[in-house]
């Protein structure tokens, strides 16, 4: 079939003069040869991390394999051996000069409300900071304000997600120690990711968040401004269908859909396993208690009492090991799954804003092209500005997509290595406990050996 009537799409990267930009409705044979649509096979899809080829590090070498490494004390530590992950400072090609930490949660009770604050500590050598160290206290809504301002002021970038704000009353106690600790770790991860970003870390709102004792957030005005921008974009590109979405962004969208579905399934199954382990632990403890009471009733001699006590001890050891395994799943495994589910949603939001930017550009370009055909009106400067915004979205999104994939590979390799080590430790403890019982059962009491010699 001839492609004479096929619409042309917005270029996905690289700046071009407005005179070289292809109109989305221009037939293929009339398009300038210097402005060609991106080739789906130009490597962009592979760069997005959507192929089955081996991953490479910054130097072009393939990643190493996962392994268990020995720490200084000789114990197996949760770590991995991979090409360029020995120094996290060089993961994205930059050195860190801004270090942040979230810790020390405190509960505040007043007549109006009860809430938790966290200590935010900062160490830096950047010139925009007046002091090398800061320490302030922030509550969840302050982190929420920061993320909203980052997303509002730098919409072309991927802003890391926050943990969910709302919890189900009666199901989760948001003031419980476990919940507060889990949220604190998630907030710490959020702030660290922002501080490590080469552009978000220089945002003035982050500087205010880290240094100001009393935030003047003005959330209402920020929300109105954000809603106003969304209404403006919807008015320009509302109901508009993109002429041609660059293939690398379509591949990103498809990958994120599949990735979210897989993580959601893993999260659901892992939570079901945890519930079943909790029930299993209750049964196991009751099971071991029966052996303990039985042993106390054997007063005639140690021949049976000691084995019964041994079985009870084995069951107690296995219960403790399973409890440790379940706790590590709840505290380490599930939070990473949930963070990356939210991360995928955040990336989808950036893709949506990118599409809105392209749609706004195409709508304005089409209108300018029609006016030029009718009365020779030159293309207005606003069209060129729309193109610049669209190209900025493309470049920033690609860079953040690469960073996100690098972080994702590193985080999940560590997570899986840690999970493997935890399971090995669980089964090793259980095996050692039961083997000690076998040794006890195979040991003949002194009286029995003496009787056997008579």
Chain oligomer state: single chain
Structural class: mainly alpha
- Taking all residues together, what is the mean pLDDT? 77
Beta-strand portion reads: 5-15%
The helix tally amounts to 9
Q: Approximately how much helix is present in the residues?
A: 55-70%
- Placed side by side, the strands forming the largest sheet appear as 3-4-5
In one word, what is the shape? elongated
Count of individual beta strands: 5
Tell me about the largest β-sheet: 3 strands, antiparallel
Show unreliable segments. 1-91, 219-228, 230-237
End-to-end separation in angstroms reads 103 Å
Rg (C-alpha, Å): 30 Å
How do the helices and strands follow one another from N- to C-terminus?
A: HEEEEEHHHHHHHH
């Amino acid at each position: 079939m001839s492609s004479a009537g096929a619409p042309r799409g917005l270029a996905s990267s690289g700046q071009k003069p407005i005179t070289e930009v292809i109109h989305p409705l221009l037939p293929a044979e009339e398009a300038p040869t210097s402005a060609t649509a991106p080739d789906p096979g130009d490597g962009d899809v592979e760069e997005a991390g959507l192929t089955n080829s081996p991953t490479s590090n910054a130097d072009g070498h393939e990643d190493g394999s996962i392994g268990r490494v020995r720490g200084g004390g000789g114990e197996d530590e949760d770590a991995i051996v991979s090409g360029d992950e020995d120094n996290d400072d060089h993961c994205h090609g930059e050195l860190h000069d801004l270090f942040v930490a979230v810790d020390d949660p405190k509960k505040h009770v007043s007549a109006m409300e009860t809430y938790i604050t966290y200590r935010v500590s900062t160490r830096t050598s950047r010139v925009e900071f007046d002091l090398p160290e800061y320490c302030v206290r922030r509550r969840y809504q302050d982190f929420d304000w920061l993320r909203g301002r980052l997303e509002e002021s730098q919409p072309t970038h991927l802003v890391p997600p926050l943990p969910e704000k709302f919890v189900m009353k009666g199901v989760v106690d948001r003031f419980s120690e476990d919940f507060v600790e889990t949220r604190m770790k998630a907030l710490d991860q959020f702030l660290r990711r922002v501080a490590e970003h080469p552009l978000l870390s220089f945002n003035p709102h982050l500087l205010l968040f880290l240094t100001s004792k009393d935030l003047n957030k003005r959330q209402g005005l920020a929300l109105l401004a954000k809603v106003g921008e969304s209404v403006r974009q919807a008015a320009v590109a509302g109901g508009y269908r993109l002429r041609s979405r660059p293939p690398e962004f379509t591949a990103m969208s498809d990958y994120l859909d599949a990735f979210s579905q897989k993580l959601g399934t893993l999260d659901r199954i892992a939570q079901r396993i945890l519930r079943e382990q909790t029930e299993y632990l209750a049964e196991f403890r009751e099971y071991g208690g029966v052996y303990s009471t039985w042993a106390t009733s054997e007063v005639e001699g140690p021949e049976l009492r000691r084995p019964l006590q041994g079985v009870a001890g084995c069951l107690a050891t296995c219960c403790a090991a399973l409890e440790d395994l379940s706790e590590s799943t709840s505290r380490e495994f599930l939070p990473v799954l949930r963070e990356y589910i939210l991360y995928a949603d955040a990336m989808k939001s950036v893709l949506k804003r990118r599409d809105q930017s392209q749609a706004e550009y195409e709508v304005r370009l089409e209108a300018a092209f029609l006016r030029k055909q009718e009365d020779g009106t030159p293309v207005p400067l606003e069209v060129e500005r729309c193109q610049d915004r669209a190209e900025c979205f493309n470049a920033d999104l690609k860079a953040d997509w690469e960073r996100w994939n690098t972080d994702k590979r590193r985080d999940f390799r560590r997570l899986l290595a840690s999970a493997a080590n935890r399971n090995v430790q669980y089964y090793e403890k259980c095996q050692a406990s039961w083997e000690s019982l076998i040794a006890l059962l195979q040991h003949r009491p002194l009286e029995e050996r003496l009787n056997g010699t008579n």
